[in-house]
Amino acid sequence: MKLKLDENLPVELANLLSGHDVATVPAEGLTGREDRAVFVAAVREGRLLLTQDMDFSDVRQFRPGTHPGIVMIRLRDPSRRRLVERIQQVFSTEDVERWAGCFVVLSDRKLRIRRP
Fold it and tell me: More exposed terminus of the chain, fewer Cβ within 10 Å: N or C?
């Protein structure tokens, strides 16, 4: 699956999510750019966007089925270590290919998927 990691996620995840084509906002020179630019790049490239940025949580603006997918990560302790652990855990146990076009909320214990 093609993924885009927002700038608020550890860059090392790009190497840890083996089997996926991962691009990062910093590597593409999009750091500090407005959310719309990041979103447009993810859509243009057909990438599922992983982010902690609550600006992407408005499902009225980012309706499932109108984009390649958004994964909103909401952890109580969003330390670098915890983010890496939780994301790796979910990506190794879930069929993330089924998230295409969905709005997904990934929390400490739950995974909520809003499908098109």
Answer: C
pLDDT at 41 over 90: yes
Q: Is the pLDDT of residue 18 over 90?
A: no
Q: In what order do the strands lie in the sheet with 70-74?
A: 21-24, 2-5, 48-51, 70-74, 103-107, 111-114
H or E element in which residue 112 lies: strand 111-114
Residue 42 Cα to chain centre, angstroms:
10
Q: Which two tokens stand for residue 64?
A: 């499932």
Using alpha carbons only, what angle is made at residue 55 by residues 9 and 47, rounded to the nearest 5 degrees? 55
- Cβ neighbours of residue 22 closer than 8 Å, sequence gap 6 or more: 3, 4, 5, 13, 14
Confidence band of 1 (pLDDT split at 50, 70, 90): very high
- Give phi and psi for 80, each to the nearest 5: -55, -50
Are 49 and 56 in contact by the 8 Å Cβ rule? The answer is yes
Q: What band does 81 get if pLDDT is binned at 50, 70 and 90? A: very high
Give 98's strand partners. Answer: none
